[in-house]
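Quick one - inputs below.
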Amino acid sequence: MEAVFFFVFAISALTAALSMILQKNIIYSALSLIVVIGSMGGLFLLLNATFIAVLQIVIYAGAIMTLFLFVIMMVEPQVEIKETWRLQTKLVLTVLLLIAAGAIWAIRGIGAFQPIIQEMSVKDLARLLFTGYLLPFEAITILIISSVIGALYIARREET
Amino acid sequence: MIQPFYYLVLSVLLFFIGVLGIFIRKNLIVIFLCIELMLNSANLAFITFARFYQTLDGQLAAFFVITVAAAEATVGLAMILLVNRTRKSIDIDQLTTMKG
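Output:
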């Protein structure tokens, strides 16, 4: 049963990712990314990360992608020039493909998942977040506030 | 039971698709979407290892990646709006001059 869910989510994530980079209309690209994010949320559920799966759906698919869609509607539609497969591009992509193959080769003998010894709940996650990871958490709050202020400053209209 | 190897291969493939998109597309927004896809594939690897080692640190790393991605998306999209307003284009091949 788990295998069925895994392959459904994996195949939908891969096809939606391919459709994201191949669509000509950027609205369709953004909608494909939402499908990828939803499938990833399902995979996180299969990996026992319920809280992160909920965050993935609420923050990514809910907030970030809505922002993307608003911005896409605000920029003018573009006529995209047909992509050119230059020699450098092919060369770099070959190297990257080799790196990806090497990464897959390096993790081939990782072994199997052990059965879960003790259930990790959201409570444990929160306890770890507010004890061991308190400093990164506070840094993140400062980062988010400064990014909001920065975004407002960058996107303001010049007074003329 | 699905092996962790399959999750990691899926993560590598999604990351590679993101890199491919950055190389073959000229639209600034699609490149931004590809960056989000790559962050997501890294999250999948983090959570796979969190499940593999049965700790919560990997899940917290994914949590921090999601929050940083949200901050990055707000600033990046504001910059895309600004570029579109001043240049009337978000094609990266036309953003050639440094002159604002």
